[in-house]
Recover the amino acids of this structure.
């Protein structure tokens, strides 16, 4: 699991012995269910320097940017169109995140 | 002590997928990542597509499954190179698994590589394998509420094949609703309505795919 590898690498960088918590950004549209991620994490880290660490997950709302009228908006009900001008030429600026933001270590 | 990290969990896979992608481009290979729930008709679509295209397109197939090599055997019967990947439990293919199959293929002799992903409407959408684009199948027996339940896959796919339309008379499933909801999620989505049983609608898919193969990026 790539998350474990990143945490391990970051712990090594700062010479940490134990992991207290990991803060994650999980996009509203990411293919990750927070509950099952917590469970996986618990199973995988058993008996390692990460055992017992808490996973804190912030769900990041789905937001879009309209390339036509340059407005920013929340994408509701997965309708990928600009609420101001109706154009579908938009890009997703958040809500597909799957990132580690911060770790707390000793 | 708190340490700020800010790293994408999928960064390692994205990197390998990009390396795969570069290699495919070098060989002028069009690569499709084919996804659906189990039983929607991925292998059936591949069998049909191979029959229709193999006289003028050189095709190779990677079959992803949690266990068993039945699908690769079905494809091998069609006389095209097929490699089975068993993920041993993982619910999706990743860049590494695809890279591990490379020595089994002769990319110089191929135009098109289709990767049949593990049957799952969720996780495969997150993991690139080095494809030009993702294609997904939704069979009408799965119901017309699926686009709004699995938006990521519909958003990430370039093509949606609505399969098993021969069964429409027997079930309550609105093609209009599938089309409308998936186009809201992805206005650019190219939709084909097909039956791998009767062959209905497949001609249009073959033509579209032939065009893609013809126009694939070739770097010499
Ligand atoms: N009625 C009908 N059955 C189909 C169609 N396409 C596939 N099937 C059947 O659906 C089942 C699963 O198909 P398969 O290609 O193995 O699905 P996969 O798991 O996505 O690879 C098989 O029994 C197929 O014969 C179709 O268009 N109509
Ligand atoms: Mg199959
Ligand atoms: Zn706009």
């Amino acid at each position: 699991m790539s998350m474990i590898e990143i945490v391990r690498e970051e712990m090594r960088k700062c010479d940490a012995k134990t992991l207290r918590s990991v803060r994650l950004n999980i996009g509203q549209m990411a293919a990750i269910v927070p509950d099952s991620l917590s469970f996986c994490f618990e199973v995988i880290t058993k008996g390692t320097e990460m055992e017992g660490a808490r996973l804190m997950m912030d769900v990041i709302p789905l937001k879009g940017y309209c390339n036509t009228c340059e407005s920013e908006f929340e994408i509701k009900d997965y309708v990928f169109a600009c609420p101001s001008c109706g154009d579908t030429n938009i890009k997703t600026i958040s809500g597909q995140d799957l990132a580690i933001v911060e770790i707390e270590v000793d | 002590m708190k340490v700020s990290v800010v790293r994408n969990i999928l960064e390692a896979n994205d990197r390998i997928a990009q390396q795969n992608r570069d290699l495919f481009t070098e060989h002028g290979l069009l690569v499709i990542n084919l996804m659906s729930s189990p039983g929607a008709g991925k292998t059936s679509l591949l069998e049909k597509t191979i029959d229709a295209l193999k006289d003028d397109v050189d095709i190779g197939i990677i079959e992803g499954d949690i266990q068993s090599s039945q699908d690769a055997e079905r494809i091998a019967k069609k006389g095209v190179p097929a490699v089975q990947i068993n993920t041993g439990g993982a619910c999706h293919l990743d860049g590494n698994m695809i890279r591990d199959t490379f020595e089994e293929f002769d990319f110089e002799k191929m135009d098109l590589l289709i990767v049949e992903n593990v049957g799952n409407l969720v996780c495969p959408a997150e993991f690139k394998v080095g494809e030009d684009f993702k294609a997904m199948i939704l069979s009408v027996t799965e119901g017309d509420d699926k686009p709004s339940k699995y938006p990521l896959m519909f958003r990430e796919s370039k093509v949606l094949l609505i399969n098993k339309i021969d069964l429409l008379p027997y079930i309550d499933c609105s093609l209009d609703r599938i089309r409308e909801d998936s186009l809201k999620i992805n206005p650019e989505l190219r939709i084909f309505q097909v039956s791998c049983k009767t062959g209905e609608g497949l001609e249009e898919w073959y033509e579209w795919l032939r065009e893609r193969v013809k126009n694939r990026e070739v770097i010499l």
User: Anything to note?
Assistant: Chain A has two helices and six strands. The interface with chain B takes residues 2-3, 5-6, 10, 14, 16, 24, 29-32, 77-81, 88, 92, 96, 98-106 of chain A (CB under 8 Å). The pocket of magnesium ion (ligand 2) is lined by residues B 42-43, 71, 116 (CB under 6 Å).
